[in-house]
Amino acid sequence: MLIAALAVAAVACLVAVVSLWRVVTVERRFRVLWGDGDGPKEVARELASARSELRSATDDAGDSLKRVALVRYDAFGDIAGRLSFSAALLDDDGDGLVISSIHARSESRTYAKSIENGRSSIELTPEEKQAVAAARAGKETP
């Protein structure tokens, strides 16, 4: 019985030594990965910072003039080729501008009108209204 108890104790000691060796190995690898032990905290701080920057970038993207539509047309009956155009450039809130260029036989004129919430304080032409509506809807115009 004593020999069996000593054998069990020896096996238990061997298991304890192997387990301790594995723990030391894991700790060594952990130190290599995380440096002085501040690693998990630093990773959490970096992740929080990255999330904050992503939120800021997402907010900024909403303010960019990314909704764009172009309407080409013939402003005058005697000139063909759809050389005149109205281009609307809006952000997600419908704010931005519409630029129109009217081409005639001997000259061309360009106009810019500000747009707030899809509307302008200056009367919009039908083509400008079409460009603004298409930009707000996120659709291409022919």
Automatic annotation (TrEMBL):
<protein>
    <submittedName>
        <fullName>DUF4446 family protein</fullName>
    </submittedName>
</protein>
<feature type="region of interest" description="Disordered">
    <location>
        <begin position="122"/>
        <end position="142"/>
    </location>
</feature>
<dbReference type="Pfam" id="PF14584">
    <property type="entry name" value="DUF4446"/>
</dbReference>
<dbReference type="InterPro" id="IPR027981">
    <property type="entry name" value="DUF4446"/>
</dbReference>
